[in-house]
Amino acid sequence: TLEGSYQKTLERLEDLKRLRDDFILEIKEVFELSDIQDFLDSYPRLGFKDKAQSFWEQSIEEENSDNLDVEDLLSEAEDIFMIEEIKKFFY
User: Fold this and answer.
1) pLDDT tens sequence across 10-33
2) Contact 24, 78 (CB under 8 A)
3) How sure is the predictor about 3, in pLDDT bands with cuts at 50, 70 and 90?
4) Do 83 and 44 contact (CB within 8 A), yes or no?
5) Which is nearest to 24 in space by CA: 11, 40, 43?
6) Helix axis angle, 2-30 to 33-41, nearest 10°
7) SS3 string of 39-91?
8) If you ran DSSP here, which 8-state letter would residue 31 be given?
């Protein structure tokens, strides 16, 4: 039924929230708050456009390219917004 499906979705959402909170707690236990802040303030990239390339190949390619295409700019903007949301969990 629709109500049963809705209830399962709500339960899954609550499970994911608990998992997120546990993960954040683990990070806070392992790292100093200043290290977390420094990392998040560096606005790390959260993903790469071409998943077939390794991290190092992608990094070298980005380093050698002075031009960003629209997709790269949008991806970087999304990452910045996500990092700002993540910061709210830590400070």
Assistant:
1) 999 999 999 999 999 999 999 999
2) no
3) confident
4) yes
5) 40
6) 110
7) HHHCCCCCCCCCCCCCHHHHHHHHHHCCCCCHHHHHHHHHHHHHHHHHHHHHC
8) S
